[in-house]
Amino acid sequence: MAGTVSKIIHFEDEEEFIDDMDRVLEAFSYLAGRYGHNPVEGVILWDSIGIRDKEGVKIFRVGEFPFAEGTLNLDLEEIRLLERYFDELESKWDELSVEDIRHFVDLMNEAAGREAVIYEAYDLGLDRNTAYILINIANIHYLDSILEGDDREIFEGALELLLKYV
């Protein structure tokens, strides 16, 4: 897409990064709701997983499966199958690598008999304390040219926080 750049971001403190990105995404989502242009088009963390259900693909992090489970439109048997694999992944959290996640995703898809689970972080070359981000520079320029007052402050604060990592 024109005006979009992607970058692999490295960070030291995962919890701080996630909190910061939550604030950035919240601010830009608010501005996109008002002005129709979002500077951040996506963020993939090293442990982001997608599950294809009857409605589409739902994205979550490995440790969030219990929360995503209630939103998945899958047969109970398939949910229980995925739950067993995700429980195993979560039990290995401290030593978990992208290679481990990739292996479990392959096992889950094989057991499900279809490509039910998607894991792009491995293909993107991510590792712990990394994320892949899609930034729309054209939308940054657009918002920068039109915003005033409180919305400009929200924009500048979010942009400053984003630039901390970029």
Number of strands: 6
Largest sheet, if any? Answer: 3 strands, antiparallel
Rg (C-alpha, Å): 18 Å
Q: Residue share in helices?
A: 40-55%
CATH class of the largest domain: Alpha Beta
What's the mean pLDDT score?
Answer: 94
> Helical region count?
7
- Name the structural class: alpha+beta
Strand content: 15-25%
User: In which order are the strands of the major sheet placed?
Assistant: 1-6-2
Pattern of helices and strands: EHEEEHHHEHEHH
CATH topology of the largest domain: Alpha-Beta Plaits
Q: What gross morphology would you assign?
A: elongated
The tally of domains stands at 2
Given as residue ranges, the uncertain stretches (5+ residues, pLDDT < 50) are none
Q: Based on the coordinates given, report the CATH architecture of the largest domain.
A: 2-Layer Sandwich
Quick rundown:
The protein is of the alpha+beta class and 166 residues long. It has helices at residues 14-35, 65-68, 76-91, 98-112, 121-124, 137-146, 149-163; strands at residues 4-10, 40-45, 48-53, 56-61, 117-118, 130-136.
Tell me about this structure.
With 166 residues, this protein is an alpha+beta fold. The protein contains 7 helices and 6 strands. The protein has 2 domains: 1-46 and 126-166, Alpha-Beta Plaits (2-Layer Sandwich); 47-125, no CATH class. 52% of the residues lie in helices and 20% in strands. It has a 3-stranded antiparallel beta sheet with strand order 1-6-2. Strands 4-3-5 form a 3-stranded antiparallel beta sheet. Helix 1 (14-35) runs antiparallel to helix 7 (149-163). It is elongated and about 55 Å long. The model has no long low-confidence stretch (mean pLDDT 94).
